[in-house]
Amino acid sequence: MQEITPATKKIIHSITCDCCKVKYDDIFEIQEFLSWEDVAGYGNSNYGDGSKLALDLCQYCTANLLSRYIRREEDYV
Question: What is the pTM of this model?
Answer without folding.
Answer: 0.77
